[in-house]
Design a protein that fits this description.
- By secondary structure, the protein is an alpha+beta fold.
- The protein has two domains: 88 residues, Ubiquitin-like (UB roll) (Roll), CATH 3.10.20; 127 residues, Cytidine Deaminase, domain 2, CATH 3.40.140.10.
- 26% of the residues lie in helices and 32% in strands.
- The strands form four sheets. It has a six-stranded mixed β-sheet, with helices on both faces.
- The chain is flat.
């Protein structure tokens, strides 16, 4: 599982005002860089991101946007850190890059995220069939783990975090300035490492809007948990695609919005 890196942040000299007193200090701030993606030698799209786990971000983006369905279609993936470019070769995939970019949708994601399809296309997607079963105690414990691992956020306050978990531990973890990027990074990490996700859950620190659940749906993951809130459209998508959606998972409480059968005791019993 990835850990914090100096590339998550930089340091800037600031003036701090606190309790009537001014002071000078060095303060950590979140790093932001453009990431240029090239597919089969052709320029594709540029994302704004925190400059760590960039190959994972690209693999997750291609997976969650429906360009690929697994690592078998990735011939190579190379990062040129100096040029802020990831070059990918894909095999067995027919792409009309211009057409996909023409259909770009600006999302409500922080960092002004994009998705390359109509938002409601998700309602026509495959339904989640994963058999994962989680207890409320596991969900709340893994959310605490997510918070503990969010070292860049604790230092800068400028990132979101996401994780993939089997309920017992965090299998993949990432931080990024964008909620959607953090999710792409953990999905990409699982993709590149050959980790099956159809019996796993995705945890997110941020609010869940349509682009996030669409990414989760395309990965076949049956459970999505956030510390924050979902939108009404997200709940509709979750109900339609049979995804268990949990919000406000913090402290000792949570809200289950759809498909509660994957949460032990949600039928009103105590276990």
């Amino acid at each position: 599982m990835s850990t914090d890196s100096p590339e998550h942040q930089t340091t800037r000299s600031i003036l701090r005002y606190e309790k009537g007193v001014w002071s000078s200090r060095n303060d950590p701030v979140t790093s932001e860089r453009p990431l240029h993606i090239r597919i089969n030698g052709n320029p594709f799209i540029t994302l704004l991101c925190t400059p760590v786990q960039r190959k994972e971000l690209v693999a997750g983006f291609l997976l969650s946007e429906g360009f690929i369905d697994g690592t078998g279609q990735i011939g190579s993936i190379e990062l040129d850190a100096q040029a802020d470019t990831v070059s990918v070769t894909l095999s067995g995939v027919e792409l009309d890059l211009e057409e996909r970019v023409r259909n770009v949708t600006l999302t409500s994601g922080c960092g002004r995220g994009t998705i390359l399809c109509d938002v409601m296309d998700a309602l026509e997607g495959p339904k989640a069939r994963g058999k994962v079963q989680l207890t409320p105690e596991q969900i709340l414990a893994r959310m605490r783990d997510l918070q503990r691992h969010s070292t860049s956020y604790l230092k800068t306050g400028g990132t979101h975090s996401a994780a993939v978990t089997d309920g017992e531990s965090l299998i993949a973890f990432a931080e990024d300035l964008g909620r959607h990027n953090a999710v792409d990074k953990v999905l990409g990490a699982c993709c590149l490492d050959g980790i099956e996700t159809k019996d796993k859950a995705v945890f997110s620190s941020g609010r869940i809007s349509s682009e996030i659940i669409m990414k989760v749906a395309r990965s076949g993951i049956p459970v999505l948990v956030t510390r924050a809130a979902p939108t009404d459209q997200v709940i509709q998508i979750a109900e339609t695609l049979l995804i268990t959606l949990v919000g406000f998972a913090r402290g000792n409480r949570m809200n289950v919005y759809s498909c509660p059968e994957r949460i032990t005791g949600s039928d009103g019993s105590n276990g």
